[in-house]
Design brief:
mainly alpha, globular, Tscrpt_reg_MarR-type_CS
Length: 145
């Protein structure tokens, strides 16, 4: 089977649609973050940490940015009382960034404010959402998850 050109009309259309989704996601995240006097980056880090405490290197890897950037963001979140550093119970040499109770509440408010995709996704069947999730994972090289 021949591979599709990366410039065929369908591929270009998909790329534009993905770019539109990403732009809307960032706009909405930035708007929601501003209501809590946070930057979009701070809100994204807090949202990620609300799923599970993790070392800052892992946060950087997941968000595709430099660990030093994450350190600065976590420092500012810590000053606000939204995040704390604690030893990893599995390896006390490693520090985990973890949300405080206030950080968990704020992350919940941020998640509740992000509804640009919620309604369109709700209109898809469970099997359509599963296919979409699996295709996105495959595009990101995470299809073995």
């Amino acid at each position: 089977m021949a591979t599709q050109s990366r410039t065929d009309p369908l591929t270009l259309d998909v790329i534009q649609l993905i770019a539109g989704v990403v732009a809307r996601y960032h706009e909405e995240y930035d708007r929601a973050a501003a209501t809590h006097a946070l930057t979009g980056a701070q809100a994204r880090v807090l949202g990620l940490l609300s799923l599970e405490p993790m070392p800052m290197r892992k946060v950087a890897r997941k968000l595709k940015c430099e660990p030093s950037n994450i350190t600065g963001i976590v420092d500012r979140l810590e000053l606000r009382g939204l995040v704390e550093r604690r030893p990893d119970p599995a390896d006390r040499r490693i520090k985990l960034a973890a949300p405080t109770e206030e950080g968990m509440r704020t992350a919940g408010h941020l998640r509740d404010a992000l509804d640009f995709a919620r309604e369109p996704l709700a209109e898809l069947s469970e099997s359509e959402r599963t296919v979409l999730r699996d295709l996105l994972r495959r595009m990101l090289g995470e299809d073995d998850v």
